[in-house]
């Protein structure tokens, strides 16, 4: 397979952090609170959701940092699970990453952008806007890695600054609502309830993306040293942003106005700043979602590319352009994204994606223990801080959430498992078609 030799541009630590932050801060934090307040009424329990979700993400980032430093190759879970368990398990995770991990969240971000934009400009056709934005960013990232990297840093920096300004302005201008953020016996009961576990699905989805940089490992400058730092800095920054944003949402807006709403940011901004301020914030959030869409189109195709390098039947998707960009894999992911946009509702995609993504991150962190037992001599430039407690905490909290999803949301769980089974079928068909040596 011909490989490019002229493009030596590498992704810096700053760009890596920008990719992590942009992947995380997007659809989830601006949409999921409306679903959480339907079953949870305590301000303390609602903020605990975001604190626990952030703790899970931090523990996951610590674990992934060790795996990425020990096995520095692009592909994320696909590469890790292929090495730790079996190539079939790695393929399934890659299949899920391609179909659910990136295409579905890209579609969600684009759909949310359309909804926010329509709340400001009612005559707008949100679906056409979503499609147009996805196609525009696909064109940018298919042309130049350097241009895509610089664009990512700029739009992510703007996103963070705007959100920090919104938190500060909200705290100063909001009329406090009669909601308590202090722990009580009743609020602790809500924390330990099935509703809390199910709501963690929405929160975990909002935090998904903390592992985004591992999909670009082969393109990061000094990955063994920089990747753990990228994962930790990006995740910690988002944890602080999320708690601040949700505190402002709850502090300023009656729960009845938030219930069932997708455009939580627009509702809150309207409550704080009035109709004009709400429209302004709605348009700003729509613009901020551009960063999320861009980062997922940037990172996701690298998974499909690595899968194509390992499986000859998918070799066409591994081919790189003259500048080292997996253009075919990018177009494949874009096609899946557009399919989600035109065929599914926002809520369907959100629940379906949350379960399957949690399942494979669980298996990856569990693989940290497996790898330490099977290959204790493997060089580990970075070792997970707090091992074995931090990965165990991740597994316990993530496993608790998965159990309640299977118990209380069997339909969404079944759809997720069917997706995995389809991937398994594709894997074995591709093996049968491989030429024998």
Automatic annotation (TrEMBL):
Listed name of the protein: Amino acid permease
UniProt xrefs under InterPro entries: AA/rel_permease1, AminoAcid_Transporter
Regions crossing the membrane: 16-38, 44-64, 84-108, 128-144, 151-175, 195-218, 230-252, 272-299, 320-343, 349-373, 385-407, 413-431
Annotated localization: Membrane
Topology class, membrane: Multi-pass membrane protein
Chief place of localization: membrane
Electron transport among keywords: no
Protein keywords: Membrane, Transmembrane, Transmembrane helix
PANTHER family registered for this protein in UniProt: AMINO ACID TRANSPORTER, SOBREMESA, ISOFORM B
């Amino acid at each position: 397979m011909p490989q490019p030799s002229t493009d030596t541009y590498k992704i810096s630590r700053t760009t890596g952090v920008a990719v992590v932050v942009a992947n995380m801060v997007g659809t989830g934090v601006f949409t999921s609170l409306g679903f959480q307040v339907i079953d949870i009424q305590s301000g303390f329990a609602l903020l605990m959701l975001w604190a626990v979700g952030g703790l899970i993400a931090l523990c996951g980032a610590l674990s992934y940092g060790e795996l990425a430093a020990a096995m520095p190759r692009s592909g994320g879970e696909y590469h890790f699970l292929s090495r730790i368990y079996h190539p079939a398990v790695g393929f399934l995770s890659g299949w899920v990453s391609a179909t659910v991990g990136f295409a579905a969240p890209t579609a969600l971000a684009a759909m949310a952008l359309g909804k926010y934009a329509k709340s400001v400009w009612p005559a707008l056709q949100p679906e056409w806007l979503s499609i147009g934005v996805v196609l525009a960013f696909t064109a940018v990232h298919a042309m130049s890695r350097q241009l895509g990297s610089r664009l990512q840093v700029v739009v992510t920096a703007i996103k963070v600054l705007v959100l920090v300004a919104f938190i500060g302005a909200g705290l100063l201008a909001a009329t406090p609502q009669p909601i308590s953020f202090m722990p009580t016996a009743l609020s602790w009961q809500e924390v330990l309830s099935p509703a809390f576990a199910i709501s963690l699905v929405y929160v975990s989805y909002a935090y998904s993306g903390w592992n985004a940089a591992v999909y670009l490992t082969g393109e990061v400058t000094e990955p063994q040293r920089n990747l753990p730092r990228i994962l930790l800095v990006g995740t910690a920054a988002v944890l602080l942003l999320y708690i601040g944003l949700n505190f402002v949402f709850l502090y300023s807006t009656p729960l009845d106005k938030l219930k069932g709403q997708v455009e939580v940011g627009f509702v809150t901004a309207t409550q704080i700043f009035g109709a004009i301020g709400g429209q302004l914030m709605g348009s700003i959030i729509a613009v901020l979602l551009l960063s999320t869409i861009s980062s997922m189109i940037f990172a996701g195709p690298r998974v499909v590319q690595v899968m194509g390098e390992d499986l000859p039947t998918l070799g066409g998707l591994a081919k790189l352009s003259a500048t080292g960009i997996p253009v075919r894999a990018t177009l494949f992911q874009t096609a899946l994204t557009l399919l989600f946009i035109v065929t599914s509702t926002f809520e369907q995609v959100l629940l379906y994606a949350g379960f399957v993504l949690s399942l494979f991150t669980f298996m990856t962190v569990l693989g940290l223990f497996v790898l330490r037992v099977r290959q204790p001599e493997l060089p580990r430039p970075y070792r997970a801080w707090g091992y074995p407690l931090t990965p165990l905490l991740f597994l316990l909290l993530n496993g608790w959430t998965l159990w309640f999803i299977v118990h209380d949301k069997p339909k969404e769980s079944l759809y997720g498992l069917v997706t995995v089974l389809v991937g398994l079928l594709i894997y074995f068909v591709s093996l049968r078609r491989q030429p024998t040596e």
